[in-house]
Amino acid sequence: DAGVIQSPRHEVTEMGQEVTLRCKPISGHNSLFWYRQTMMRGLELLIYFNNNVPIDDSGMPEDRFSAKMPNASFSTLKIQPSEPRDSAVYFCASTTTGGRSPLHFGNGTRLTVT
Amino acid sequence: TQLLEQSPQFLSIQEGENLTVYCNSSSVFSSLQWYRQEPGEGPVLLVTVVTGGEVKKLKRLTFQFGDARKDSSLHITAAQPGDTGLYLCAGVLIDTNAGKSTFGDGTTLTVKP
Lengths: 114, 113
Prior knowledge:
The complex is a heterodimer. By secondary structure, chain A is an all-beta fold. Chain A has strands spanning 5-7, 10-13, 19-24, 31-38, 42-50, 53-56, 65-71, 74-79, 88-95, 104-105, 109-113. The radius of gyration of chain A is 13 Å and the shape is globular. By secondary structure, chain B is mostly beta strands. Helix content of chain B is 0%, strand content 54%. Chain B contains no helices and 11 strands. In chain B, 35% of the residues are buried.
C-alpha cells in the first residue's frame, strides 16, 4: 500500500495567489482529514469528510479556505487568495470510520506564502 | 486553552536514560493515540489505548491510559538516538463524531549519543 499521497511536497507562492493542495487517501478508507501544523499552534484540524461528505469544517479559518472531495480517492484543499499567515505544513490523513481507528498521515505539503 | 496538555514541551537526554512524557486533560476520551513524527514526515501511530488503566508495551516504550480516561503517559526505557522525534498524543472525545481526533502540542525529544 502506497499510503496517503500528498502533492506537491513544497509550494512557494506570492501573497494573493491561489494555492491548491491535493491528497489521495488510502484505498478503502472512508474518512479523510485535513490538518495544518505550525510551531505556534501545533496540529489543527481544518475539515474532515466521511464517505466524501464534509462533516465538520469548523476548523477552516476563513472563507479563503475551501475543501472538496469529489470521489473516494481524491481531495483538494484550496486557499484563495493566499496570505503569508497561511504558511504552514498541511497534512492529509485518512482512516476508516470509527473512533478507535488510527489516522494514517501523508508526508504533508510545506506551504510558504511570501 | 489546549484540550490536551503535553509535558514537557522539550526534552533533551543522553542515550541510555529513561524518560516519561505526559498527556493530560480534564475531558474524558473514548480512545487515545500516541504518534511519533520525524522531520519532513507525517505523524505515525505508535499505539491506541481504549480501556481506563490500560498498559501497553511496545519494545522499550510503555503506554498507560489513566483510570478515568482523561490522561496518559509514555515511558521510554534506555532511550536511543533513534527515539528522537516529536511525540504527539491525540484523543477522541466521548461525545464527538467518531474519528475526530484532537491533538496535543507534542513533546520534542532529543536523545544524544
